[in-house]
Structures are given as structure tokens and as C-alpha cells.
Amino acid sequence: MDNFVRLNFLGASGVVTGSKFFVETSEKNILIDCGMFQGLKELRELNWVNLPIDVGTIDVVLLTHGHLDHVGYLPRLLKQGFTGKIIGTAPTLSIAEIILIDSAKIHEEEAKKANKEKYSKHNPALPFYTKIEAEETIKQFQVEIPDKWIVLSEHISYRFQYNGHIIGATFIELDINGKRFVFSGDIGRQNDYLLDDPKKPEWADYLFIESTYGNKLHPNEDVEDILSTLIKETIHKKGNLIIPSFAVERLQTLMYLLWKLYKKNKIPNIPIFVDSPMGNNVLEVFKRFPKWHKLSDSDYNAMCNHINIIQSYKETWETIDNKRSKIVIAGSGMVTGGRVLTYLQQLIDEPSTTVLLVGFQAEGTRGRLLQEGAHEIRFFGKYYPVKAQIKTIESLSAHADQNDLLNWMSSIKNIPEKVFLIHGEPTALDAFRVKIKDTFNWSVTIPKLTDIEKLLL
Fold it and tell me: Is 223-392 a CATH 3.10.310.10 domain?
């Protein structure tokens, strides 16, 4: 085997989203993750550009977890000639299937709406991929179990290790010719409400580590107290509390917290609606894979019975028209699409409405605009004044903060030859680079999009 590896940084390099890392060797070519870019328009436009590699030469795709910015580009990969297996843990592939089918439906609906109302500059507006293309992609899924080394070729093997963050998530260890490449994926937090603590790598010759919160510590907030105060204020104002939420993990965590608050008599029995077809499907994944989370069967059932699960778009409008004070949890978490847009379109101009943001809001998203105090917001080609109160809870993030990230790295016994900082905005990347240097004295690189690095092993 030739003693080299060529790394192609095709996403999540200098930016948070679009995770794609192409590892070329003389035996196998491996793509780690295959995500969509989200956020800024110039990033989203990159989704429509073919990858600058020969996609037909990729032998296998390994997935760290099922979020859109790690799996959402897969149907486009097939379109460009990929024919190999897409491998992940069972919950990861279940989540990826839900997300691909759901986002395909959204792509098709948005293209249809844009063509009907003529607000797109493209004529005709096309879906990024279709439901049929998503279904073809899912046929190439292959489940592997965690904690076991899987041989890919004579000198290459890989292993998935539990990583918290969302159900099924792992970091990936890739052994190539005796050298270990560790891809962190997204790292979860200590003491998560629903998930166990992430495992930690013990050896890394080349480390690829996420830096989403590389410059921040999560605030030490009393989440239960903040939620109960906001809910009581909502009832007092005879208004609505709208929580844009990621369908995977965040939505289930919110359901659990609200159920727990009611059980402890910290909030009255206010109606709670979950309006996320994808979130409903993710609840089923929790039911199917009990060993991947901390909820008991009885708690899971009680939590689900306490919440009103919306099944149809007709029910969405019935919920909006219902004048009672209520809590609505709806996708998407960064207000980029999904059912939450329908609620905000109708209710964001009412002072009695509170919008609670509960996760990372990427640059260029509506969520970030609301967080930064935008006086108006654009949906479906029209502007709506923002009269609602905008609140944020930062400590519900599923991402490790700077201390968690350093803790995750702390069990690595050797000094890595190189550390690549990925999945971060420039300020987070640079702050984390300095922190790693000060803490471990390791050599740190911040790759940019489309960078290529050749390593001699």
C-alpha cells in the first residue's frame, strides 16, 4: 500500500454546516458524512454545485449521525455517480431515512409553491431532490454496530463509538496503515437529559474535531425555572409560546422537560402541541431503540400521552385558530422551513406571542435574525413585522461547549500529529485553536472549504 492519505475538505471547513470529508487512499476511498450546507445564501448555493471530486470513485460513506447537515446531500451524491454502501448505526440510519424523506417532501412542496406564487427567480423552481431520489438513497443503507472494528480492506478498518448528541450518534475511528484518524462528528454533552455521556477516543494520530461552541461555555441556566416563568407569562398574556425546534433530540427533550414540569406542579395543565411530522417519526425511533437513551418505557409513554401530537396540516390550522393560550413546538429549529413558519406567519406580529429559540442559530438563518433583534422577518416572499417577544435558552444545546470538547479530548494518550478544527464559525475556530494550543500544546490546523491535504504515513 502507498503510504499516503489525501484529505479533501468538502464541507464543515471554516463553516458549521455541510459536513463532508473525503479520504483517498490506494485501497479504498471513504466519505465521512455527506451533509447539506445551511444558513448563508452563498453556502446554500454550494449545495447545487457538483462536488469537485470523482464521486464514482467513493467506495463507502460512513455517517457519524443523522442530522441534515451530515446526511442531507446523499441523494445528490447518488445523482453524481455514487453506487456504494452508506453505513451507520441502526438509529442513525433510521433518523437519516426520516430526515431525507421529510426534507424531500419539503423541497417538492417549496418548489411547487414557488412556481405557483412566482416568488422564485428560477423558472421553474426545482426541488433539491425528490422523494423518489431519497427512497433510492435509502436502499444503499447498511447498519453496523458500535464498538466493533469493521475491516474495509487489507490495511483499513473503522469503528463507531457512542457520542451522545442525538440518538445513534457516534464518532468514527478510521485505522489506515496503522495510523488512526478520528472524526468527532458532533459531540454531545455531559449529563444530558435523555442521552448517556459521550465515550472518548484514547488514541488519535489525526484528529478532526468539531468546534461549534469552541469559543463558548453554555450558561449555567435553570432551564426548568426559565420555562415555567415563560409559560406563566404566556398564560397571563393570553398568548402563545412558540418553540422552533430541531425534530431530532431537541423536540423529545422539550417534551420530557414540559411533562416533568407538569408532574412537579411547576406549570399548570396548559395545552402543548407538537407539530413536526418528522419529530413524530423520531419519537418512534426512541421507542425502537431503548438502549440508546435514558428514558424508561413508562416515562416515554407518560410523556407522549401528555402532549397533543398534530397529525395533519388541517390540525395545524385548527391549533392556530384555537384562541386558548398554548405551547407549540414545531420544526425547524433555525426557522429555515417546516411547520413553524405557518405559526410565525400568523402570530409573530402579536405582542402576546413569545418565540423561544432553544438551539444554535447558524449565520444567515431566520432564527439568527430573530435572535439578533430583526424588526421584520420574511416568509414565502413577504415581510412580517416582529412584535412577538424573542427569548433564547442556550443551555439546551445538544453540542458540547468548550469545556466538554476539551474533556472529550483529554483521554487521548498520544500527541496527535495534526488536529483539524472543523464545524465552526471563524471566531469559534480561532478561539478553540488557541485554547487547544494552551491546554495540550498540540499542532492545530483550520482547513478551509475545498482544501486538500496530503499526509505521508
Answer: no
Contact status, residue 115 vs residue 131, Cβ threshold 8 Å: no
Kindly give the residue spans of alpha helices, DSSP state H, lying in 47-176. 68-71, 74-79, 90-117, 131-138
In the block, residue with C-alpha cell 416563568: 229
The pTM assigned to this predicted structure is 0.91
| Cβ partners under 8 Å of residue 174, min gap 6 | 23, 30, 32, 62, 156, 157, 158, 180, 181, 182, 183
For the chain, 457 residues long, the average pLDDT of each consecutive 10-residue run is 87 96 97 94 94 98 97 98 98 97 89 81 86 98 98 97 97 97 97 96 98 94 95 96 93 96 96 90 95 95 94 93 95 89 96 94 91 93 95 91 97 98 97 97 96 93
Look at the domain 4-216+398-456 and name its fold. Answer: Metallo-beta-lactamase; Chain A (3.60.15)
219 preceded by a cis bond (ω within 30 of 0)? no
Tally of residues, the chain: 457
